[in-house]
Design brief:
disordered N terminus, disordered C terminus, 11 strands, mainly beta, 8-stranded antiparallel barrel
C-alpha cells in the first residue's frame, strides 16, 4: 500500500454557485408614499390668507426589504421576498366660520402596506468571486390597510359627516382588496466585503425606485477537502497492492 499526497492551491468560492444561499436586509428610497407626500405638500399648503390656511405633513417608515435566495445551479436562484411600509398623511385646515369663530380641521390618513412574494433571480456573472449582477422578478400577495380619522377644534363634529368619513375608509380598504397582487422587477448588484458578508444595491420597482442593504451569504456545502494554513489544500490518493 502506498499513500501519495500533493499540495494544490485553494480556489476561492464563487458568489453565485449551486447550493449557495443569500439573505438580504435593506431599505428603499424613494417610495410611492414618499413621492405622494411631496406632491401633497406642494399642492395643499396655503399660507398668508386671513380667513383660510392649510398645511400638510407626511411621516413614514420604510420600505424595509427582507429576502432569501437559494441557488439552484447555472444562473438561476429561487427564494422569498417580503417588504413593508408605513406612513401617515396629515392635512390641517384652519378657517373662520360665519360667526368669526376659528375652526381647525385635522385629517389623518394612515397607510400600512406589506407584500409577501416568490422571487426568481437570473445571475449574469457565473464565475465571479467579488461581484454578483442579477435581474430579479417577484410576484405574490399584497395587503394594504387604510385608517382615516378626522377631528374638529372649535366646533362639534356632525354625526352624519362622521358617517361619511367612516364610509370613505371602508371604500378605500375595499379598493385595495380588489386585486391583492404584488410584484417587483429590479436589476441588482451584490458585493462581497468579507467571507459570508456583503452589500447589495437594487434599482427598479419594489415599493421604491432603489434600495441598499446587507447581504450575508452561505457557500455551498459538501466540500470536505482539508485546507492548509497557507491557503492550500492537501489531496491524497491511496494505492493498495493486491497479492498475486
Amino acid at each position: 500500500m502506498a499513500l501519495l499526497c500533493t499540495l494544490l492551491p485553494e480556489s476561492k468560492a464563487q458568489l453565485a454557485q449551486k447550493g449557495a444561499s443569500f439573505m438580504s436586509l435593506g431599505y428603499g428610497f424613494p417610495s410611492a408614499m414618499q413621492f405622494m407626500g411631496r406632491v401633497f405638500k406642494f399642492g395643499y399648503t396655503i399660507e398668508g390668507e386671513e380667513d383660510y390656511q392649510s398645511s400638510f405633513s407626511y411621516k413614514g417608515f420604510g420600505p424595509m426589504h427582507l429576502r432569501y435566495e437559494y441557488m439552484l445551479g447555472g444562473r438561476v436562484g429561487l427564494g422569498l421576498s417580503a417588504n413593508a411600509e408605513f406612513g401617515n398623511f396629515k392635512f390641517v385646515s384652519s378657517y373662520t366660520d360665519v360667526d368669526d369663530k376659528l375652526i381647525t380641521s385635522t385629517t389623518n390618513l394612515g397607510v400600512s402596506s406589506w407584500n409577501a412574494m416568490a422571487r426568481c433571480n437570473i445571475h449574469f456573472l457565473k464565475r465571479s468571486e467579488k461581484v454578483d449582477l442579477y435581474y430579479g422578478f417577484s410576484v405574490g400577495y399584497s395587503r394594504t390597510r387604510i385608517k382615516l380619522e378626522e377631528t374638529l377644534e372649535g366646533a362639534d363634529m356632525d354625526p352624519e359627516y362622521q358617517k361619511e368619513v367612516d364610509a370613505m375608509e371602508d371604500y378605500l380598504n375595499d379598493v385595495f382588496k380588489l386585486i391583492p397582487v404584488a410584484f417587483e422587477e429590479v436589476f441588482g448588484a451584490r458585493f462581497a466585503l468579507a467571507p459570508g458578508t456583503g452589500l447589495y444595491f437594487e434599482v427598479g420597482y419594489s415599493k421604491a425606485l432603489a434600495q441598499i442593504g446587507f447581504s450575508p451569504n452561505w457557500a455551498a456545502t459538501g466540500d470536505t477537502t482539508a485546507v492548509a494554513g497557507n491557503g492550500s489544500r492537501h489531496v491524497c490518493m491511496k494505492f493498495v497492492s493486491q497479492p498475486a
